[in-house]
Amino acid sequence: MQRSSSSNNSSLAQQLGQRWLALLNRLQEDPKLAQVMSTRIGQYLRSRPFLALALLMFSAMAALPVGLFLLFALITIVMAVVGFVFFEVFMLFVGGITLLSVLSGIALFSLLVSVIVTGVFVTIPNLLKRYYPNVTKRKESEEETPEVKQKK
């Protein structure tokens, strides 16, 4: 039984090794990778495989935290914009309600003032006619005299 499991492990290791070599061959034949490896940095990393492996591991392991941070930043920006829009809409609503209230108050005030002024305008001459008839008669007589003069 141990022999079959060790033979399975060795065949599995050989398959993994063959797949790894096939992947490396495919990567080395890639024109983009060949272009990068022909630069000074590529030649430097080719001469130091441990550093290249460390750089590869770092970049692979750093991808997730950097991606999560960028996602967090994007979500934060979107939420800030949406919050700003909602705040602006709320402020416009409050301003509109305030403007409506002020204009309604001004309309009621102007209506009240016009009723009072009209009442005073109608009431004062009637009071004068009732309590001071001689004041209103003089005005009527003065108004009648030019007409009488024209008729003569």
What tags apply to this protein structure?
152 residues; 5 helices
Helix content: over 70%
Structural class based on helices, strands and sheet pairing: mainly alpha
Question: What Rg, in angstroms, do the CA atoms define?
Answer: 49 Å
Mean pLDDT: 86
Number of H- or I-type helical stretches: 5
Query: How many strands appear in the DSSP assignment?
Result: 0
Give the end-to-end Cα distance, rounded to a whole number of Å.
150 Å
What kind of sheet is the major sheet? none
Overall body shape: rod-shaped
Write the layout of secondary structure elements.
Layout: H1 2-29, H2 31-37, H3 40-47, H4 49-131, H5 133-151
Helix pairs in contact: 4-5
Explained architecture:
The chain is mostly helical and 152 residues long. The chain is built from 5 helices and no strands. Helix 4 packs across helix 5. The longest helix has 83 residues. It starts with a helix and ends with a helix. The mean pLDDT is 86.
